[in-house]
Amino acid sequence: MRPDHAWGAECAWPSAEPRHRPAPWRSFALALLLIGAAQFGHGAGIQAKAWLAQGLIARAWDRTLAGEREVKPWPWADTWPVAKLSAPTLGIERYVLAGADGAALAFGPGHLDGTPLPGTPGNSVIGGHRDTHLAFLRRLRPGDPLVVERADGVRIAFRVFEGDVLDKGDVWVTKQEGPTRLTLVTCYPFDALRAGGRQRYVVFAFEQPNRGGERGTRG
Amino acid sequence: MTEPAPVVTARHVALDLIGVAARAVAVALVSALGLGAAVLLLAQPARASETGTGALLLRSAEGAESVSAPLLSTDVAFRITGMVARAHVIQTFENASADWVEGVYVFPLPENAAVDHLRLRVGERTIEGEIREREAAQRTYVAARASGRRAALLDQERPNIFTTSVANIGPRERVTVELEYQQTLRYENGRYSMRFPMVVGPRYIPGALKVSDASRITPPVLRPDSGRENRLRLHVDLDAGVPLATVSSPYHALRTREVSESRREFDLADGDVPASRDFELDWAPQAGPSPRVAWFTERKHGRYYGLLMILPPAASPGARLAREVTFVLDTSGSMAGASIRQAKEALELALARLGPGDRFNVIEFNSSAQRLFAAPQDVNPRNVRLAIDWVRGLEARGGTEMASALRLALAGGEAEGRIRQVVFLTDGAVGNEEALFGLIRERLGEARLFTVGIGSAPNSHFMSKAAQLGRGTFTYIGRIDEVQQKMSELFAKIESPVMKGLEIRWPDGVRAEAWPARIPDLYAGEPVVVVAALDRLAGDVRVSGTRDGRAWEARVPLAAHGDGAGVGSLWARGKVESLTDSLREGAPEDAVRARVIELAMAHRLVTKYTSFVAVDTSPARASGEALKQTAVPTNLPEGWEYGKVFGELPRGATDSRFALLAGAVLMLVALAMLRRRVA
């Protein structure tokens, strides 16, 4: 009789030689660790990508201001900066990318195709993530200034009118009738953990009546 | 292994307890793992938030549909004789609310419909509509609306989009509008077919400013989950004149009543259906020499109107023509769902059918256009494989910027010694048709454009006119199981030589005015169809052309013949179309307008310049009561995906916080367990 079996195999659990075989739950734990690390990495990746990209886009924007068109921030990018949006009172600067689809939104707020470019007449719609680039929307108050720098270098001043909680089906906010404005769209509630809810937080900002800024022609 | 003697000791019991505890921990661990897996599974769909989200397509949608808008149901009865169908459409506006309402309903009709009657029915009374110039009709209607009288107005927005407006529908009241139209049927490859569209698919309006009437062609659309829908019932009386072999309705189940060998009646098997996809009826006469010539006449206003159809003999199988084919695939949001699957299948079939010696390229477009190869490539297994893989990976989302795709497809000059063909697969869900037609006209060159209308509610006006201007043909694919047959038919057409130089000579001494004025080239299986106005019927009309270098001529005696009721309207409709087409060639709008109005008034036709208006005699709504104006929402075409069409506001969040938190928690749990085991 081997000493290991001194107190009866039927009572021994885990099995007789626990120290020599990896316990199944050790593998479970390792798997759990890996899954956790992957999740964490995924989350960290999203944030890192979001902020690193803005740095690269800044360079592309400088080249855009220098006269180049549709400058891709990195060679395989399928988007390019179309405007710089800033909230001076909050010290915020964001480069707005072409297209408000997921591919662009990962790297910056996106301009919705088919609406006028920011700073041109009409209703320019910009979407972005509430937990990255457009997190600052929650801190905007009616009356706060917003400034759009266009590709031609012209700066247009806007003033926040209000912020509203709407449904994702409320596409009327993209209608073109009415004064020149920015419509900034992000998800709501701001503190929700998960993406994919129905609610949207929409900020409307109207163009400031011509105060020193020259008006460009339609882009 | 030897069985040890059971020795019960305190230590044994303690160990046993530890065992139980360990078991409990194991269960906890398994549950944790399960939870972890569940978390991952749940995280999966949300990850889409980072990549594929629908972009906004349509700027027209008001979002919420008005609750008080009347419900609309439609009843259609067709009477088909020979080459012509006459339809009687009854639209019932039912106001379920407690308000007085005006309902405006945007609906489709076949692109070649000649609408020549309108009636407004309120209770027992019937008010006949009158044809007026569009603005005059509008004024009459607005005045009636303001005075509280019931009124109906019928406008044409596009050759295949019409609007009925009905004013002063009382609370819980029902008002019906009846209209009638006449239509030439399609005859091809020995089969007749009739299509009746039931819903205007939401249209993409590019650049907001180029389409001035965007709001008039983009009614609000009912959300599929709203619990409301517009329903339709229909009845067909088919009198083919010759014994019928097969009759089929590919998209709707029918109940059939056989009246005689050559005549059958049909009703929808389900009674009524949601008005959400085109109805089609196809039939073929019994075997035997398929009809080669048909001639129907009608006498009206002291003139004869004739409809002539001649089918030239089939082409003898000859040498294949070397071709350069560009396939254009619409991957916009309106194509999402069933449509893109049909289109991809059709395209794959087409790619596989290309022969060695041909060249090809593929272009896809939504908000922008992209081509597979920078220049057309030879057909070889590698290139075809590449194309098929590329096409399979395409996703339908975004806008319908068709112009850039057309420019790309029609760019590139001569293809030395090859016939340039563009096969365009789309649902045509655009509102800027005229701009696109202009582009086709301007850039076509020696190329030929073949449109393939995809899905349950393609824009038939776009399909047929683009093909006409592109000097090609149009084909419809409404279901995945039709792809094979329809694409084979299309390929049979584009692979064999066309009948060219078609000419019609009316007998000497007969003054005739025929439409179309110039007969387009004919592809395999297509007949010549002309509508003519003649001062008398005598002698023979001669039709001639050449195919593959061989001359062909046919003679038809001009005698009063057949049941040609309504041919006069068709003639006028044909002339209106020719006049409208001339605008594209630079004809002055004022002159065209005057001629169209004159013609439309004489034949009581709705055109872009003339509308029907019917006004009740006495006021119904007291001046103190308010009138609510409502747009009657329409159904979403079958197989379309609401979110992909109307888009949604951009998605504004990532899962990063959740992932960070879940990841941290999982890692902590795992580390704690590992430490425990090691200890």
Brief summary:
The complex is a heterodimer of chains A (219) and B (679). With 219 residues, chain A is α+β, with helices and mostly antiparallel strands.
**N-to-C CA distance of chain A:** 90 Å
One letter per element, helices H and strands E, the order of chain A comes to HEEHEEEEEE
Q: How many DSSP helices of chain B?
A: 13
Look at the helices and sheets of chain A and give the structural class: alpha+beta
In what range is the share of β-strand residues of chain B? 25-35%
Low-confidence stretches of chain A: 1-18, 211-219
Q: How much β-strand is present in the residues of chain A?
A: 25-35%
- The name CATH uses for the topology of the largest domain in chain B is Immunoglobulin-like
Biggest sheet statistics of chain B: 9 strands, mixed
Shape of chain A: globular
How many domains of chain A? The number is 1
How big is the Rg of chain A? 26 Å
**Mean pLDDT value of chain B:** 84
Shape of chain B: globular
**Based on DSSP secondary structure assignment, what is the total number of beta strands of chain A?**
8
Distance between the termini of chain B: 31 Å
In percent, how helical is the residue content of chain B?
25-40%
CATH architecture of the largest domain in chain B: Sandwich
How would you explain this protein's 3D organization?
Chain A is an alpha+beta fold and 219 residues long. Helix content of chain A is 21%, strand content 26%. Chain A has a single domain (40-207), classed as Sortase, Chain: A. Chain A has helices spanning 24-65, 102-105; strands at 81-87, 92-98, 110-111, 123-127, 145-150, 155-167, 181-187, 199-207. An eight-stranded mixed barrel of chain A has the order 1-2-3-4-7-8-6-5. The model of chain A is unreliable at 1-18 and 211-219 (pLDDT under 50). Chain B has 679 residues and is of the alpha+beta class. In chain B, strands 1, 2, 4, 5, 9, 12, 14, 15 and 16 form a nine-stranded mixed β-sheet that branches. In chain B, strands 20, 21, 22, 23, 24, 25 and 26 form a seven-stranded mixed β-sheet that branches. A six-stranded mixed β-sheet of chain B has the order 6-32-7-8-3-33. Chain B has 13 helices and 33 strands. In chain B, a hairpin with a 2-residue loop joins β7 (149-158) and β8 (161-169). In chain B, α4 packs across α9 (483-495) and α10 packs antiparallel against α11. The model of chain B is unreliable at 1-8 and 36-66 (pLDDT under 50). Chain B folds into three domains: 71-286 and 604-631, Immunoglobulin-like (Sandwich); 293-314 and 499-602, Immunoglobulin-like (Sandwich), CATH 2.60.40; 323-495, Rossmann fold, CATH 3.40.50. At the A-B interface, α1, α2, β7 and β8 of A face α1 and α13 of B.
